[in-house]
């Protein structure tokens, strides 16, 4: 086979075989195929797309390029979840202990964040002593004994995807659904889960801006999961405004604990319970959504959810005193209030702007090498549809930097107030099975 022939074949809209896809992916990963040819191949996919078999085979090629984690020694159906990314998205912190409280094993491999806020690993590391560098024996033992564990992804997990993504990022082929779907699903499947719940965000603060595109991505990923013998469900959720009221690592840990205590915002609680309910269905504990949802609400109300979070922190070396005293979490020295200039109702909040401002305050990374300030972030005091009076604090910016003018100006221009209360919005748009 010649690479140029395969580029031309895809450029002409023809179907590539499993062997042809594997030839290109393995050749690029081991350095036999140069960047310029792989870039041309990716662009051909961008314009011509791939059918379901091609996408599944591309995903499989990514998976087989590196380590595949063996979780067969963990009892039960191992359930994982993945979010396509959003602003204030701390759902993993909530659902890990919540689902584990049902006796379902949650063995989660997670990454660090790049962009507007940290990843799940960064958020948990804002807890003093919390260790995410677990060896595989400890990871498996914790899941078997406590039904939960989280660790950073291994360096050799789907190296073909890592190398390809870096190329996509600089050649304008990031926003291709076959390439996005295969990238996400390859990491999830290589991480060893039996069942996967996907949280596909849509809106201003998400990668997918339109509901149609979000649904197409969700359906594609569910198809991949099923074709590779993984139980998979996708949930399409709203990301037009930040999820919950906190953006930033330590701030999001505080808020996740409030959800687990039963004091969370309606949007965040609804999304977390929806995702946890489908995780419990895939995990074999419940057959229907309503039963799962009601049981999980009871676990929160009973206090069992926050106690499971305490156990989660303890078994990974963290300081459990934060449960009773959240003020022990990192706090910024500068707290800047953004106030309403008139009476009315919050009409919209641009989630992407809030995410950008949080990053500028120190809560996220512009580059992989950047250091995150765990205490930095933004508190959203007033959300969509809520009433405000002139002078009310709408946002509070938290930072340790002295020159925060750029972030402050972004936040000031990230929301609007109307005289009329806007219509209610959905938190969950669709379920793809």
From TrEMBL:
Query: Mind telling me which InterPro entries this protein's record contains?
Result: Glycosyl_Trfase_fam3 (IPR000312), Glycosyl_Trfase_fam3_N_dom (IPR017459), Glycosyl_Trfase_fam3_N_dom_sf (IPR036320), Nuc_phospho_transferase (IPR035902), PYNP-like_C_sf (IPR036566), PYNP_C (IPR013102), Pyrmidine_PPas_bac/euk (IPR018090), Pyrmidine_PPase_CS (IPR017872)
Enumerate the spans annotated as Pyrimidine nucleoside phosphorylase C-terminal domain. 345-418
GO MF, one term, reads:
thymidine phosphorylase activity
Catalytic activities = uridine + phosphate = alpha-D-ribose 1-phosphate + uracil; 2'-deoxyuridine + phosphate = 2-deoxy-alpha-D-ribose 1-phosphate + uracil; thymidine + phosphate = 2-deoxy-alpha-D-ribose 1-phosphate + thymine
**Signal peptide span per the entry?**
none
One of the protein's GO biological processes: pyrimidine nucleoside metabolic process
Keyword flag Transferase: yes
Keyword annotations: Glycosyltransferase, Transferase
Q: Which GO terms describe its cellular component?
A: cytosol
Q: Does the keyword Lipid metabolism apply?
A: no
The UniProt entry, under SMART domains, shows:
PYNP_C (SM00941)
- Which top EC class is given? transferase
- Its domain of life reads Bacteria
Which E.C. number(s) belong to this protein? 2.4.2.2
Which family does the record claim for this protein? Answer: Belongs to the thymidine/pyrimidine-nucleoside phosphorylase family.
What NCBIfam families does this protein map onto?
PRK05820.1 (NF004490), PRK06078.1 (NF004747), Y_phosphoryl (TIGR02644)
User: Which function does this protein serve?
Assistant: Catalyzes phosphorolysis of the pyrimidine nucleosides uridine, thymidine and 2'-deoxyuridine with the formation of the corresponding pyrimidine base and ribose-1-phosphate.
Q: Subunit comment for this entry? A: Homodimer.
Specify the protein name: Pyrimidine-nucleoside phosphorylase
* Native species: Clostridium pasteurianum DSM 525 = ATCC 6013
């Amino acid at each position: 086979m010649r690479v140029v022939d395969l580029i031309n074949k895809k450029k002409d809209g023809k179907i590539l075989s499993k062997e042809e896809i594997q030839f290109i992916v393995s050749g690029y990963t081991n350095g036999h195929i140069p960047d310029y040819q792989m870039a041309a191949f990716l662009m051909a996919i961008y314009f011509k797309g791939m059918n379901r078999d091609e996408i599944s085979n591309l995903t499989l090629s990514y998976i087989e390029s590196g380590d595949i984690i063996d979780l067969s020694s963990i009892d039960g159906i191992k359930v994982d979840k993945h979010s396509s990314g959003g602003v204030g998205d701390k759902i993993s912190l909530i659902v890990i202990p919540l689902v584990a409280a049902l006796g379902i094993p949650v063995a989660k491999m997670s990454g660090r964040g790049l962009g507007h806020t940290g990843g799940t690993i960064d958020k948990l590391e804002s807890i003093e002593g919390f260790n995410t560098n677990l060896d595989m024996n400890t990871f498996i033992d914790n899941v078997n004994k406590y039904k939960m564990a989280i660790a950073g992804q291994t360096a050799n997990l789907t190296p073909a995807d890592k190398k390809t993504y870096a190329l996509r990022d600089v050649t304008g082929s990031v926003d291709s659904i076959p390439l996005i779907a295969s990238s996400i699903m390859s990491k999830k499947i290589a991480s060893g889960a039996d069942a996967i719940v996907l949280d596909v965000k849509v809106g201003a603060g998400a990668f997918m801006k339109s509901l149609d595109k979000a649904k197409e991505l969700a359906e594609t990923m569910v198809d991949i999961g099923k074709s590779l013998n993984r139980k998979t469900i996708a949930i399409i959720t709203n990301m037009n405004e930040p999820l919950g009221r906190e953006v930033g690592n330590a701030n999001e840990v505080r808020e996740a604990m409030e959800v687990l205590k039963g004091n969370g915002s309606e949007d965040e609680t609804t999304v977390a319970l929806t995702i946890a309910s489908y995780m419990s269905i895939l995990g074999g504990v419940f057959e229907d959504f309503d039963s799962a949802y009601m049981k999980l609400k009871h676990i929160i109300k009973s206090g069992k959810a926050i106690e499971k979070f305490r156990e989660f922190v303890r078994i990974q070396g963290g300081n459990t005193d934060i449960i009773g005293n959240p003020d022990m979490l990192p706090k910024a020295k500068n707290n800047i209030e953004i106030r309403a200039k008139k009476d009315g109702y919050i009409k919209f909040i641009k989630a992407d702007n809030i995410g950008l401002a949080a990053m500028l305050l120190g809560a996220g990374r512009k580059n992989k090498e950047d250091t995150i300030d765990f205490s930095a972030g933004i508190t959203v005091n007033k959300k969509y549809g809520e009433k405000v009076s002139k002078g009310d604090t709408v946002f509070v910016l938290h930072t340790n930097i002295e020159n925060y003018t750029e972030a402050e100006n972004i936040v000031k221009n990230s929301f609007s107030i109307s005289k009329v209360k806007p219509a209610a919005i959905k938190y969950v748009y669709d379920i793809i099975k």
